[in-house]
Amino acid sequence: QGEVRDCQELTDVERAIETVINQFHCYAVKGQKEYLTPNEMQELVVQKLPHLGKVRCVGPLEEKIECMGDPDEAKLEFGEYWDMMGDAAKGCRRK
Amino acid sequence: MAECTELEWAVQVLVNNFDKYSSRRCCCKKPRRISKKDFRKMLSCELNHMLTDTGNRRAADKLICDLDENKDGRISFEEYWTLIGGIASPIAQIIRQQEQSVKLTK
C-alpha cells in the first residue's frame, strides 16, 4: 500500500510535526515566528491544549511559563516550546 | 479526549508513535524504550517525506550518532521527544526562510 500512495501524502507523524510547528508560528507574532513570549505561550496553552493542559501537567506548565521572565519580553525559542510540548505529552501518557 | 484540538491531536499522534515502536516485551514497571534499530525503522516508515531532503537526513543520522555516544542503546520517551524536536527544529527554520523569501520576491 505504501507504494501506491501519492508520494506527497504525508504520514500522520509528519502531519503532527507540521501542526506543532504551525502552531508555534501562528502564536509567535511579536517575535515574527522566531520566538514566543511567555504571554503568547500562555495563550497557546490555554487555547490549544485545553484538555492536555488539565491533565496534571498544567501546573508545571504554568509554573514554567511564569519562570520564563518578563511576560512580554522574554524569548521562548522553538526548542523550549518543543520541550514544553514534551511535558504535555508525558501528561497524556500517564493517563 | 472527544473534541481535542489540532495541537492535542498532534501531541497524541507523536505519543502513540513512540508506543508503537517501543518494545512490548518490557514489563510494565520498566519505562518503555525504542531500540536504535526500531528508531531507524520508524524514521524511514513515518518520516520518509520529511527526510527526503538530504540535509535533513544527515541531521537525523547525526542525531542517532550522538545517541550512540551515551551507550545506553535504547531510546527513552524523553530522548525520542528530543530527537523528533531535532528534526522539527530545522524544518521550522526552513518554513520561516521560505516565507521570508516569498515576501521579498513579492
Automatic annotation (TrEMBL), chain A:
<dbReference type="InterPro" id="IPR013787">
    <property type="entry name" value="S100_Ca-bd_sub"/>
</dbReference>
<dbReference type="InterPro" id="IPR011992">
    <property type="entry name" value="EF-hand-dom_pair"/>
</dbReference>
<feature type="domain" description="S100/CaBP-9k-type calcium binding subdomain">
    <location>
        <begin position="13"/>
        <end position="54"/>
    </location>
</feature>
<dbReference type="GO" id="GO:0005615">
    <property type="term" value="C:extracellular space"/>
</dbReference>
<dbReference type="GO" id="GO:0048306">
    <property type="term" value="F:calcium-dependent protein binding"/>
</dbReference>
<dbReference type="GO" id="GO:0090026">
    <property type="term" value="P:positive regulation of monocyte chemotaxis"/>
</dbReference>
<dbReference type="GO" id="GO:0032496">
    <property type="term" value="P:response to lipopolysaccharide"/>
</dbReference>
<dbReference type="GO" id="GO:0034142">
    <property type="term" value="P:toll-like receptor 4 signaling pathway"/>
</dbReference>
<protein>
    <submittedName>
        <fullName>S100 calcium binding protein A14</fullName>
    </submittedName>
</protein>
<dbReference type="GO" id="GO:0071624">
    <property type="term" value="P:positive regulation of granulocyte chemotaxis"/>
</dbReference>
<dbReference type="GO" id="GO:0005509">
    <property type="term" value="F:calcium ion binding"/>
</dbReference>
<dbReference type="GO" id="GO:0048471">
    <property type="term" value="C:perinuclear region of cytoplasm"/>
</dbReference>
<dbReference type="Pfam" id="PF01023">
    <property type="entry name" value="S_100"/>
</dbReference>
<dbReference type="GO" id="GO:0042379">
    <property type="term" value="F:chemokine receptor binding"/>
</dbReference>
TrEMBL record, chain B:
<dbReference type="GO" id="GO:0048306">
    <property type="term" value="F:calcium-dependent protein binding"/>
</dbReference>
<dbReference type="Pfam" id="PF01023">
    <property type="entry name" value="S_100"/>
</dbReference>
<keyword id="KW-0479">Metal-binding</keyword>
<dbReference type="InterPro" id="IPR013787">
    <property type="entry name" value="S100_Ca-bd_sub"/>
</dbReference>
<keyword id="KW-0106">Calcium</keyword>
<dbReference type="InterPro" id="IPR002048">
    <property type="entry name" value="EF_hand_dom"/>
</dbReference>
<dbReference type="GO" id="GO:0005615">
    <property type="term" value="C:extracellular space"/>
</dbReference>
<dbReference type="GO" id="GO:0005509">
    <property type="term" value="F:calcium ion binding"/>
</dbReference>
<dbReference type="InterPro" id="IPR018247">
    <property type="entry name" value="EF_Hand_1_Ca_BS"/>
</dbReference>
<feature type="domain" description="EF-hand">
    <location>
        <begin position="55"/>
        <end position="90"/>
    </location>
</feature>
<protein>
    <recommendedName>
        <fullName>Protein S100</fullName>
    </recommendedName>
</protein>
<dbReference type="InterPro" id="IPR001751">
    <property type="entry name" value="S100/CaBP7/8-like_CS"/>
</dbReference>
<dbReference type="InterPro" id="IPR011992">
    <property type="entry name" value="EF-hand-dom_pair"/>
</dbReference>
<dbReference type="GO" id="GO:0048471">
    <property type="term" value="C:perinuclear region of cytoplasm"/>
</dbReference>
